[in-house]
Write a structure and sequence with these properties.
By secondary structure, this protein is an alpha/beta fold. The chain contains 13 helices and 16 strands. β4, α5 and β5 form a beta-alpha-beta unit. It is elongated and about 60 Å long.
Length: 377
């Protein structure tokens, strides 16, 4: 290859939070703190960050010769980048247990290296850790790997993150200030959503590929009436002995309220014959109850984002969804929430399943016996 045809090499910082997302399927709603991480492991949680990181890197493979990585040592990025054959330099030291301090130290090294973009695999907690060091010094992009992802810095999935990197490095995408949000995990586990804006980072922007920050559902009189009408319609259609797997949200909680059952606001609950048979369950508990019986899933999209799976309800995993079947999924949302959505979104961690969702359109129950149709993007 002549000098004139050599590709321009762009430097990317890359950090993986190896424990991000492990609390999702086991119903812990996050892994902030060593005690919660150890509890997640004891419940059978498996690492998912490396899998998501590898999916992202595999999509970058065609551009391998034009990308150079500055990566965190060991489980914090080095292993995945090496596995996929990219050129890289390691920042930091390998550790059996990583910490916030490791993340912050690696970010400082990446900033000093003057990279074009910092990509991280994690959730809102990782975004906060990065924000503290990077500020607006360089653009940041999140590969969604956590349980809580309220921030506007995340791509909708790992493949989308790779496309954003392509677009940004080729000069086709602008950057914008993106909100870094996080919730209080302890309040979250107790059924209280306490979200806070921590600041802004610069981030590449492509509206079809980057999620917006979560928008809280308005609680006007019309919204409350609509939620009640939706719940009444759902309850009237409940079949005897059918298992209903009901996801988190204010709209789905009204179903429990009208049945005089204490449904968790931010957890997944199981109903049979209009009574809760499992409260705030994890993936394994759902799979156990599912054995040998028919079931339906009821979920509501996240306000502003449109995610019905993969954000805050990872207990309803790809295994659960495949067992139940896409035809047995009911989506409920007030008309006000639906008006703010262009489409629904999924990020199940199973690309083949995500494609099945994208191949169809869903009827969203917006009031008593009234639906609106939305596709999955």
């Amino acid at each position: 290859m002549s000098e004139t045809t050599k590709p321009v090499v762009r430097a990317i910082g890359f950090i993986v939070n190896p424990i991000a997302g492990m609390g999702g399927t086991v119903g812990l709603k996050g892994t902030d703190g060593r005690d919660i991480f150890e509890k997640a492991v004891s419940l059978g949680a498996k690492p998912i960050a490396a899998v998501r990181a590898e999916k992202f890197l595999s999509e970058l493979a065609p551009f391998k010769q034009s990308i150079y990585f500055l990566v965190g040592a060991g489980d914090m990025g080095e292993i995945e980048v090496e596995k996929h054959g990219f050129n890289y330099t390691v920042i930091g030291e390998r550790r059996s247990q990583t910490s916030v301090e490791d993340t912050e130290s690696i970010v400082r090294g990446i900033i000093e290296a003057k990279v074009d973009l910092l990509v991280f695999c994690g959730g809102d907690g990782t975004a906060r850790d990065i924000l503290k060091v990077v500020g607006t010094k360089l653009p940041v992009l999140g590969v969604p790997t956590g349980v809580k992802m309220h921030s506007a810095v995340f791509a909708i999935n790992p493949k989308a993150a790779a496309y954003v990197v392509f677009g940004f490095l080729s000069g086709e995408l602008p950057v914008r200030e993106a909100e870094v949000m996080d919730v209080d995990e302890w309040a979250f586990r107790e059924g209280r959503l306490s979200a806070e804006l921590y600041g802004y980072v610069l981030s590449p922007y492509e509206p079809r590929l980057i999620q917006v920050s979560k928008i809280a559902s308005p609680m006007s009189e019309d919204e409350v009436r609509s939620q009640t009408a939706i719940a009444v319609f759902v309850i009237e259609g409940m079949q005897a002995e059918m298992l209903y797997i009901v996801g988190p949200g204010t709209t789905t909680r009204v179903i429990g309220d009208l049945l005089d059952q204490e449904k968790t606001l931010l957890g997944v609950d199981l109903f049979v014959d209009k009574k809760i048979v499992g409260g705030d369950v994890n993936e394994e508990q759902i799979l156990q109850v599912l054995k040998g019986r028919s079931a339906k899933i009821i979920v509501t999209p996240i306000g502003g984002q449109g995610f019905i799976f993969g954000r805050g309800n990872q207990q309803i995993s790809s295994k659960v969804i495949r067992h139940v079947g896409l035809d047995n999924i009911s989506i409920v949302a007030t008309e006000g929430k639906v008006q703010g959505l262009k489409s629904l979104k999924v990020d199940t961690g199973d690309p083949a399943l995500d494609l099945l969702f994208k191949a169809r359109r869903f009827q969203v129950l917006v009031d008593y016996g009234r639906w609106q149709e939305l596709g999955v993007e």
